[in-house]
Amino acid sequence: MITAPPPASESASRATSSEGHAEVLLTDDLVKIYSGRAVVNGIKLSVRQGEIVGLLGKNGAGKTTTFYMIVGLVRPNSGRVVFSGTDVTDYPMYKRARLGMGYLPQEESIFRKMTVEQNIMAILETMSLSKQERRHRCDELLHQFGIDRIAKNTALTLSGGEKRRLTIARSLVTRPKLLMLDEPFSGVDPIAVYDVQQLVVNLRKSGLAILITDHNVRETLSIVDHAYLIDEGRVVSEGTKDFLINDPISRQLYLGERFQM
User: Fold this and answer.
1) Which CATH number applies to 108-175?
2) Which pairing describes strands 52-56 and 209-213: parallel, antiparallel, or unpaired?
3) What is the DSSP string of 209-236?
4) Neighbouring C-beta atoms of residue 148, cutoff 10 Å
5) pLDDT digits (tens, 9 = 90+) for 45-71
6) 0.70 surpassed by pTM
7) Out of 3.40.50.10140, 3.40.50.300, 3.40.50.1370, 2.40.50.100, which CATH number does the structure's domain 1-100+176-261 have?
8) Residue 144 to residues 77, 138, 248: CA-CA distances in angstroms?
9) Could you say which DSSP state residue 59 is in?
């Protein structure tokens, strides 16, 4: 197994850039075993407030299983998931959500026959808010994500980019501390990818912690502050975009020698 812990200068750079930002998510030696094989074997990672972190790796590397253990879809055999200082390893998804862990699944998660506005209100109506507060929050999200002009349109008529805007808006209804994005660029037209990227970057500016896993490596690397490369269930390299692009191990195991941004 090739292992490549980041050089001290890379770790120091991250610590300096995130100084004063609280650590929102921490995983400690996560392990998941299927049929006697450790598909995840000792994963450690962290995400800080106001930081976009990427999980990279080829198919079967263990990144999706790691992602699902963090969000609560898969239970680890050992290790811990710590969210906002609380060990949530044994918490079901709804308890993690109550603490402020937001999750945007890869699969379409909107009500296709409802309008854009109704899609947002459907979640707001599950919260202990007055009618006026729900209306204000809905209008706020519609404006923030540039979907106020299509508020009365049914979701099934939306483009891929508009659907992604709506799903992200829905995931922010509860004002999470961490937003986990599973393949956010999947199913989005190339022309709309930049818009989705800018939405994510703006969320970071608001102080939200963001964890992304996506097979579209260029789109992901271009917006992350830090990324972890997973291979055979282990973190084999981590660092900034520029570090990973120039890292021999990242190129050998994942990016390829001819990779360019």
Assistant:
1) 1.10.8
2) parallel
3) EEEEE-S-HHHHHTT-SEEEEEETTEEE
4) 16
5) 999 999 999 999 999 999 999 999 999
6) yes
7) 3.40.50.300
8) 40, 10, 41
9) T
